[in-house]
Amino acid sequence: GARATLILNAGLGLxxxxxxxxxxxxYPDGAEANTGAGQTLPLATGLKIAxxxxxxxxxxxxTGLLNLAVLLLAALWGTDYLAMMYxxxxxxxxxxxxxxxxxxxxxxxxxxxxxxxxVKTRKGAMLGGAVLSLLVxxxxxxxxxxxxxxxxxxxxxxxxxxxxxxxxxxxxxxANEDNVLGTANGLAAVVIMGLGAIGQPLFGKLVSLLGGxxxxxYGKAIWVMPISFCGxxxxxxxxxxxxx
Length: 244
Description:
By secondary structure, the protein is an all-alpha fold. The protein has ten helices and no strands. Helix 3 (54-85) runs antiparallel to helix 7 (168-175), helix 3 (54-85) runs parallel beside helix 8 (178-209) and helix 4 (91-119) runs parallel beside helix 6.
């Protein structure tokens, strides 16, 4: 039931909170805190510097566009899309398939970071992640007669590969000075969540405009996803390499 699930979710949050409080440190044992004396910038100045760095916009855009796999499909419209396109699937199967995006994201986030470090490039890994995300999404849309097994695999792959969105954060860290890094991350967060805030209602509006709750309407509205991944490819191409 929903109530029990929410209580379990809140309990997990308390566990994570406790682990952070106990284990996470601001700096290593034996080191002194870096107070950054003389380095603090006024908010307006920090925002101006962060906004002038196009890497922040490109990294934020890249992360936000790939993150639509989570915010648009996993969080809101994915179950409706699958239920409409695959009416023979049970509700439990539909929910399980969409959940694969979230499991894939948990697997893919550290994996994509590891790959980027191994190949010693952020830009190349970002571009590869966006291209592969596009290919997997097109496979979901156009491979005929997919059964539950195929859908589970493809949506798991979608979560793993779109987790390349996590590479946007080290790009921001490597492209900004320490005294503006927090502001740069905040600016990117506005871009990332702003794209989700646009994408979620946009999909619903497209479904309504294209005929309402019909397979044809959902089949056309889902083009928001490959178009977004194409936008992520453009962001990756326009960004500069920051790996050091």
